[in-house]
Specification:
Blueprint lengths: L3 E11 L19 E12 L2 E7 H4 L7 E12 L1 E7 L13 H13 L5 H17 L2 E8 L3 H14 L2 E8 L12 H15 L5 E7 L7 H13 L4 E6 L3 H10 L6 H7 L7 E5 L5 H10 L2 E4 L1 H6 L7 H7 L3 E3 L11 H14 L6 H7 L2 H6 L17 E4 L5 H6 L6 H11 L5 E6 L2 E5 L3
Parallel strand pairs: 1-4, 5-6, 6-7, 7-8, 8-9, 9-10, 10-11, 11-12
Antiparallel strand pairs: 1-2, 2-3, 4-13, 13-14, 14-15
Helix pairs in contact: 3-4, 4-5, 5-6, 12-16
The structure holds zinc ion (ZN).
């Protein structure tokens, strides 16, 4: 079947060679690590990128191709969110607590609904629809605790054909009875899910110990065994989010050199490990992240909401460029990567640092694809890549429509989109060339 469509509009994406080192900081910077085409054409054939260029150069070759005219909307690769809790939609925006109390009072009771099939399906359907509404096409996500709900989550993702990295959240200590599975039960669920879903379609399994305070040493040892048996699995967990958490981890693991060492002791710090937060870091922990190639997921909206602290971007960058952005939906009160990029800027300003527009957009798109080692498949518009893209309509927001009148270049456009944009300006979201969400439908 030859299924080709061309999308005409303004096009923006990063080059294959783009990195945090070589991206331009402002419009007078001559580095050309990105492509911006006003009145461009994106050709999508059988779910993959088949070509991209200016409309002028393509217009004579489009006679047999369906062309969707997007006017002055921006066509760009979908966002990549590297930290989110798919099971926490029902407790987002809960008042008044910091991390450990917030988990007890809101998260654990909220996650119980996933024991019931119908509640689980309803909640995850909302979540995935909302994710697409926000223009996120790939995520690293914590799934449900229970087998049936986790299996259902993978099935729903597979049905939507999304490139997704997820796994059942693991928790065998310090959890309420209704959410506590034995170490062996957690392990058995993981094994079954790996056998059934890892590398099926566009799905990758992720070993997901919630954090060191909720997983026993025996559990982490089994996580290490799973990773040894399947070296291509991802791992995700939380690290140095909150100062009380750091103190409690020291009490529970008195033998550890530091918080990161707890995970490293069990072989869990690898170049496919995504570490959420990384706020209260020791130099030796950052050095170990650098040496292992592990991935940092910075979640500024969650850190601000829970009062966890300010992530230090420039300090982290001195050790590693494997920095990505996450909503931490649950603690984060938005699934919009615009909101994340906006708060990343504000947190940087509070740290007396300037975070350039291109760098932030890169962290949420192609940079995340590179860091997660999926850049041969998604993240930009090179020929042959999977066609996961979004169409952004700044004019869908009355104020953005007004504000964009004086905007002269892509740097400024990205900046106002990140500062003023939200889900309402996502006109449509495409997964492998198929429209998965459209605002006017
Ligand atoms: Zn989290």
């Amino acid at each position: 079947m030859n299924n080709t469509t061309a999308y005409r509009g303004n096009i923006f994406y990063f080059n294959d060679t783009a990195s945090l080192e070589n991206l331009p900081k402002h419009k007078n910077d001559t580095s050309n690590q990105y492509v911006y085409i006003e009145d461009g054409i994106l050709i999508v054939k059988n779910g993959k990128i088949d070509g991209v260029g200016s409309y002028a150069t393509y217009k004579d070759k489009l006679s047999d191709i369906k062309v969707e005219n997007c006017g002055t909307k921006l066509i760009t690769p979908g966002f990549i969110d590297t930290h989110q809790h798919s099971t926490q939609s029902s407790i987002v925006a809960a008042y008044g607590e910091k991390l450990l109390e917030w988990l007890e009072d809101y998260v654990f009771p909220g996650e119980r609904i996933y024991a019931d099939h119908d509640c689980a399906l309803k909640d995850m359907t909302f979540f995935l629809d909302h994710l697409l509404r926000n223009g996120t096409t790939t995520a690293v996500s914590y799934g449900p605790l229970f087998y049936d709900a986790s299996d259902l989550f993978f099935a729903e993702l597979n049905k939507r054909n999304m490139r997704f990295i997820t796994g059942n959240i693991l928790m065998d200590i310090n959890a309420p009875a209704t959410l506590k599975l034995s170490t062996q039960e957690n392990y058995d669920i993981s094994k079954k899910l790996i056998d059934k879903w890892h590398n099926k379609g566009r799905l990758s399994y992720c070993i997901s110990p919630r954090f060191a305070l909720a997983t026993s040493e025996a559990m982490m040892e089994l996580c290490g065994e799973l990773k040894k048996a399947h070296p291509d699995l991802y791992i995700q967990t939380h690290l140095n989010e909150n100062t009380n958490e750091v103190k409690e981890v020291k009490k529970l693991y008195p033998w550890s050199k530091n918080y990161l060492d707890v995970y490293d002791h069990f072989g869990l710090i690898t170049d496919k490990t995504v570490l959420g937060h990384c706020i209260h870091m020791l130099d030796e922990e950052l050095a170990q992240i650098r040496d292992s190639g592990a991935i940092v997921s910075w979640c500024p909206i969650s850190n601000n909401f829970l009062g966890s602290g300010l992530f230090n971007y420039e300090r982290t960058l001195k050790f590693t460029d494997k920095i990505t952005l996450g909503t931490d939906w649950g603690g984060g009160n938005s699934l919009s990567m615009f909101a994340v990029m906006d708060d990343a800027y504000k947190v940087s300003m509070l740290n007396n640092q300037k975070l350039p527009s291109m760098h932030r957009w890169f962290l949420a798109t192609y940079g995340a694809a590179k860091t997660l080692q999926i850049d041969s498949k998604v993240g930009n518009f090179d020929k042959g890549k999977e066609a996961d893209f979004i169409i952004i309509d700044p004019d869908a927001s009355p104020f953005l429509k007004y504000r964009r009148r004086g905007v002269e270049d892509i740097f400024e456009l990205l900046f106002i989109l990140m500062t003023l944009g939200d889900e309402k300006i996502i006109n449509s979201t495409y997964i492998m060339g198929e429209c998965a969400y459209r605002a006017d439908k």
